[in-house]
Specification:
Number of domains of chain A: 1
Strand content of chain A: under 5%
Largest sheet of chain A: none
Order of helices and strands of chain A: HHHHHH
Structural class of chain A: mainly alpha
Oligomer: homodimer
Number of helices of chain A: 6
CATH topology of chain A: Methane Monooxygenase Hydroxylase, Chain G, domain 1
Helix content of chain A: over 70%
CATH class of chain A: Mainly Alpha
CATH architecture of chain A: Up-down Bundle
Number of strands of chain A: 0
């Protein structure tokens, strides 16, 4: 029984890594489409988000079946519950990538990234991509030093997010209302993407160490 | 065993109703603080959000203990998993109310709601409050006609959300960048609040009917 359970947990972990890999590809294309106004690339992100949704749904089914079949208790039970929560957060990360891609599609053939913020969004996008790749690695290895890296990079995303508002609300801002809307939404989506990764990293910490992490901590 | 389980499920349901009641109070004060620039009211929302977080965390603990003690399978298992998901969504609804309150605090003593959008935000706010109250009633009664009402009101919130962008991106918009940022974020928070309620309503449908609803459907 215990061996079967361990095998099933490995299957759960493999699937989390698979979904996280898709999310990393999605944010990479989304931020490129956003920064380069590449509408074809944006459309691949939008069209393929359902794959992430389906895989997350299938993983939830597997987790529920494991609960039913193996009736885990104590730490094992919390591992399975954590997997359900991680899957929900990965699904939301995919949604954030999709929203970023949608912004570039809406404005096409206009450039979506307002002048004066291109460098900021390039940096935020690069950080989100880096965070997603590290998250995949963290889910694969449970090496908690990676969780620390993710938190540090999230701090940088938060600082850039605040700098977007400083810019937009500053006296030198000459953007039209459309630029202000785009900057506001894009910055929020980039920031939420990184937040979800931090939240997942905390849950992986539980998987690795047994320190239980409440929801949304 | 079965009877104890039913009793524990009732406890879960009572607690969901309790959290939903707090969320309804929170959005009511948040939207009033937003519409009336009432910073003292905004602060009560911000200060009290941790209560919602704590109750949601305690409910998660209870649900996990029920899984461990009762080892439910089949439909019973999915009911408990649904409760975990509903609790996470209620917690996010509380966050959205808090974000709306934060917007009014940031801009104080300036009015946060841009001219020309006050009616729109009053309507959106009133719909969110109505949705939260109906959600509480739905969780209490499992009367699925209420879920239908919530979906219809969410459609109205979505339409108002789009109308905010029409206004802000239209030629008659004279708002400053700060107004555009506020309108964009506030509209997004109002819309997400209602989305979470719809997502919860679908999960209650499962509790009531046994039709399983995948995550984030």
């Amino acid at each position: 029984m215990r061996e079967v359970f361990q095998q099933e947990l490995r299957e759960v972990q493999d699937r989390l890594v698979e979904i996280s890999t898709l999310v990393a590809g999605s944010i990479e294309r989304a931020t490129e489409s956003f920064n380069e106004s590449n509408v074809a690339l944006a459309e691949t992100v939008i069209e393929e988000d359902h794959k992430i949704d389906e895989l997350a749904g299938a993983l939830d089914e597997l987790a529920i079946q494991i609960l039913a079949r193996q009736q885990p208790v104590a730490r094992d039970l919390r591992i399975v519950v954590s997997a359900l929560r991680i899957s929900a957060s990965l699904e939301r990360m995919g949604d954030m990538a999709e929203h970023i891609a949608q912004l570039s599609r809406y404005r096409f053939p206009e450039k979506v990234v307002p002048k004066g913020l291109r460098g900021t969004f390039r940096d935020m996008g690069a950080l989100d991509v880096e965070i997603a790749k590290k998250l995949t690695e963290l889910l694969r290895t449970e090496d908690m030093s990676i969780a620390e890296d993710i938190r540090n990079e999230d701090d940088k995303v938060d600082a850039l997010h605040l700098s977007v508002f400083d810019k937009v609300l500053g006296e030198t801002w000459k953007g039209a209302a459309a630029d202000t809307v785009d900057a506001t939404l894009a910055s929020r989506y980039h920031e939420r993407f990184a937040d979800h990764a931090v939240s997942i990293a905390k849950k992986v910490q539980y998987l690795a160490t047994g320190d239980w992490v409440p929801q949304d901590a």
